[in-house]
């Protein structure tokens, strides 16, 4: 597995899917969306729940529950990650699938939205057991995924190795003559198995591009800017490293093992090496700090890159930053959003800020179709162009309508999806 799980510092409260509905409704109200179109867009298309048995190393059999929710595919095949986490449930997966629809639409890539996962704590199982569990889950999903229908990718506690197991299992279910034409059934694969260079850091890279775009418009010099990161998995660690390369100073980090801080700066490369497999706690280059007060860390940019519902009615008033850049999905709930807006704290919303992963997943999918590899420079250039263009479209709309960037992001995404439905005759 890919190291320590990034869990929230604050327990999730309420329905995550209800949060998405509130975000959607706020934008739909601003744009005067037709009530009948609203019904179509706020409803998931398919919800798959599978229960499957696996024989574990000790010889006993355990039953697992997996999910795949397909929200909307009017713009292209369903697309979305798979997360392996104890908190995975149908409500969460519905929310994540909905966010994916708006994320792909906002980024301007021809995918729809889906999400899935297994309710499991991967730390309790061996690598061999996780391979068996992953393969059985893939077999249980069977015809509900496909390279032109629904394309999974990595998410929380899943990684290129997991994608390689899914790919191999799926290909074994295909006729031999069709296998080489189905390698784009998953993205986020190892490069050796048809993956793309640049995919590992793509989401964190996208966070960095968005922060830099906002900083340019708000007289924030990245050289010397201070950042705090909650969740130091793939997204948080890469965002920290890439922003540090621009001169930013990492002053605090939190993950499931604890929190560390150093006002003079933490070396993100050294921390990433230390944290692999054991978390940030005990890092010799910083002092331990209270995880319960982590969100109060003074900084220019706070990057929540763990799980949902971190910035809420109870915690939003404690933030001491200029900008929240959402590396995670749903880290700020609607009540927290209102408090941040009233306090003048800007939020780059998740459906744009962490869209770098799905953008480069799209590039991987296209490379598989072309049977041709793109160079890293091309991938990074195209990722930056898409994200920066989408950022300015969102930001300009927010300014002209005097709405938050989140509402503007939903406005743009909903407009594109609703137009596609209208052109299709609905």
Tell me what the structure shows.
Strand 7 and strand 8 form a beta hairpin. The protein is globular. The chain starts with 15 loop residues before the first helix and ends with a helix. It is α/β, with parallel strands linked by helices and 426 residues long. Strands 9-8-7-6-10-11-12 form a seven-stranded mixed beta sheet, sandwiched between helices. Strands 1-2-4-3-5 form a five-stranded mixed beta sheet. The chain is 42% helix and 18% strand.
How many strands, which pairing sense, and closed or not: the largest β-sheet? 7 strands, mixed
Mean pLDDT: 95
**How large is the count of helical segments?**
13
Approximately how much beta-strand content do the residues carry? 15-25%
| Count of beta strands | 12
Class per helix and strand makeup: alpha/beta
User: Measured on Cα atoms, how large is the radius of gyration?
Assistant: 20 Å
Helix content: 40-55%
Distance between the termini: 44 Å
User: Helix-strand pattern, N to C?
Assistant: HHEEEHEHEHHEHEEHEEEHEHHHH
**Order of strands across the widest beta sheet?**
9-8-7-6-10-11-12
Shape by Cα distribution: globular
Instruction: Extract low-pLDDT stretches.
Output: 1-12
């Amino acid at each position: 597995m890919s190291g320590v799980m990034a869990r929230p510092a604050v327990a999730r409260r309420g329905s995550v899917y209800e949060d998405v509905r509130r975000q959607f409704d706020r934008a739909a109200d601003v744009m005067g969306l037709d009530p009948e179109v609203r019904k179509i867009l706020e409803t998931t298309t398919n919800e798959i729940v599978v229960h499957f048995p696996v024989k574990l190393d000790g010889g006993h059999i355990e039953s697992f529950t997996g999910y795949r929710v397909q929200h909307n595919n009017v713009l292209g095949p369903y697309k979305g990650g798979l997360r392996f986490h104890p908190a995975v449930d149908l409500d969460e997966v519905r929310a994540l699938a909905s966010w994916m629809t708006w994320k792909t639409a906002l980024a301007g890539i021809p995918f729809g939205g889906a999400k899935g996962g297994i309710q499991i704590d991967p730390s309790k199982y061996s690598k061999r057991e996780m391979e068996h569990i992953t393969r059985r889950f893939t077999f249980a999903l069977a015809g509900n995924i496909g390279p032109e229908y629904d394309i999974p990718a990595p998410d929380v506690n899943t990684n290129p190795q997991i994608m390689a197991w899914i790919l191999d299992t799926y290909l074994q279910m295909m006729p031999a003559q069709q296998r080489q034409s189905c390698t784009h059934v998953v993205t986020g694969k190892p490069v050796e198995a048809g993956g793309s260079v640049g995919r590992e850091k793509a989401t964190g890279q996208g966070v960095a591009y968005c922060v830099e775009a906002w900083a340019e418009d708000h007289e924030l010099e990245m050289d010397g800017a201070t950042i705090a990161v909650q969740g130091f998995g793939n997204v948080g660690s890469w965002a920290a490293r890439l922003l540090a390369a621009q001169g930013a100073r990492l002053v605090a980090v939190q993950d499931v093992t604890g929190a560390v801080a150093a006002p003079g700066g933490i070396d993100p490369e050294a921390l990433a090496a230390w944290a692999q497999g054991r978390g940030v706690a005990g890092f010799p280059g910083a002092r331990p700090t209270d995880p319960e007060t982590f969100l109060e860390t003074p900084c220019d940019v706070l990057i929540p890159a763990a799980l949902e519902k971190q910035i809420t009615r109870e915690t939003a008033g404690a933030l001491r930053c200029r900008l929240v850049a959402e590396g995670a999905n749903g880290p700020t709930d609607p009540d927290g959003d209102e408090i941040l807006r009233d306090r003048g704290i800007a939020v780059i919303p998740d459906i744009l800020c962490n869209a770098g992963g799905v953008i480069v997943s799209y590039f991987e999918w296209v490379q598989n179709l072309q049977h041709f590899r793109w160079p890293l420079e091309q991938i990074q250039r195209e990722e930056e162009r898409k994200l920066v263009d989408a950022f300015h479209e969102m930001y300009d709309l927010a300014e002209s309508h005097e709405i938050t960037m989140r509402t503007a992001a939903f406005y743009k995404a909903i407009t594109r999806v609703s137009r596609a439905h209208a052109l299709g005759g609905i």
